[in-house]
TrEMBL record:
Pfam family, one: Copper-bind
CDD domains xref list: Amicyanin
Swiss-Prot/TrEMBL keywords: Copper, Electron transport, Metal-binding, Periplasm, Signal, Transport
Name used for this protein in its record: Plastocyanin
GO MF annotation: an example: copper ion binding
High-level lineage: Bacteria, Bacillati, Chloroflexota, Thermoflexia, Thermoflexales
Cofactor details (free text): Binds 1 copper ion per subunit.
Compartment list: Periplasm
UniProt domain Blue (type 1) copper: residue ranges: 51-136
Gene Ontology, cellular component aspect: periplasmic space
Length: 165
């Protein structure tokens, strides 16, 4: 068996094992992560089309989404035949804002964004899959506070500049 084939088999085995492993217990101060649904993804209404991210061909589509505070975004693993995750942060630096757990084909995950900011996210199984959600204040809402610390940074800046070592 060639070395490349053994690596491929090992990688697939690790991905399946990651989905089968029990989730870690949340800390007492952290909210429990939302549970993925197993129902087939619904057809989005015209109003909801801009709030759905499809996992297709090892990519999040659209690659970047801009929404207002209070918007619920739904990720659907509807077109890949293998599991994925939706994890806030960057590989090696998960931010903890949201984590879907293992999304098997047909599963979906929803998260409502309550704070403005840029939320980087990735698939923890396939770390080259990366994307972002830009959350803007609601139109007509109060002006943004002059103190920048009023909006915590949802994603820490990685020290590896996005490269896996």
């Amino acid at each position: 068996m060639s070395r490349d084939r053994r690596i491929l088999i090992l990688t697939i085995g690790l991905a399946l094992a990651a989905c089968a492993a029990p989730a870690a217990s949340p800390t007492p101060t952290a909210p429990a992560p939302p549970t993925p649904t197993t129902a087939p993804p619904p057809s989005p209404s015209p109003a909801a089309q801009g709030t759905q991210v499809t996992i297709r061909n090892f990519a999040f589509q659209p690659a970047e989404l801009e929404v207002e505070v209070g918007t619920t975004v739904e990720w659907v693993n509807g077109e890949d035949s293998i599991p994925h995750t939706v994890t806030s942060g960057t590989p090696g630096y998960p931010a903890g804002a949201f984590d879907s757990g293992c999304l098997r084909p047909g599963d979906s995950f929803r998260f409502t964004f309550q704070q403005p900011g840029t939320y980087e996210y990735f698939c923890s199984i396939h770390t080259r899959m990366r994307s972002r959600i830009i959350v803007k204040p609601k139109l007509g809402s109060e002006a943004a506070p002059s103190d920048p610390s009023a909006y915590p940074s949802p994603t820490p800046a990685p020290s590896n500049y996005g490269y896996d070592y």
